[in-house]
């Protein structure tokens, strides 16, 4: 019995590993070709497997793409929760969240993926659902940090949820401009705008955030 259970466990582990490999391949292909242009055949070619094997693990291309996006989203949400829970005052934690949210560069792979997903999500419900989950989690975590800061007296804010929603909307717009319009805005200026907006929402001077760490130049 023990041997049989071990064999079943081994097969399950192999299946999980294969699924993970296919999800990673799907992410690479999507980043190269775009969500709308990616085919199962492209992913099969990237992994040297048959389309039939991919359909064994994922019934449709939509299932594969949905799982890939949800896996990516889940990892980012988990990291965001870890950052929000790190030691330090509310100002420091809020600033870390802002720095994590904005792209590392114009070629930031995560943001390229999500910008592509936004365009597709207008018409594809399965993509839109994941985008709403990601945005909802980001706003929830941001609102929690703002609320905690208000409770400790570090912030002055009577509507943490509204503040989080406004910061989120403003940042999304600025990130699109930063990513798509090379030379129009440096990463340092993007972070400065994020800090100014956050400071106004929580009743602080923008300089309070600038003191946490200098803004990057590009």
UniProtKB/TrEMBL annotation:
Organism domain of life: Bacteria
Portion annotated as DNA-binding: 39-58
Pfam families: TetR_C_6 (PF13977), TetR_N (PF00440)
UniProt keyword list: DNA-binding, Repressor, Transcription, Transcription regulation
Residues covered by the HTH tetR-type domain: 16-76
Stored InterPro entries: BetI_C (IPR039538), Homeodomain-like_sf (IPR009057), HTH-type_TetR-like_transc_reg (IPR050109), HTH_TetR (IPR001647), Tet_transcr_reg_TetR-rel_C_sf (IPR036271)
Protein name in the entry: TetR/AcrR family transcriptional regulator
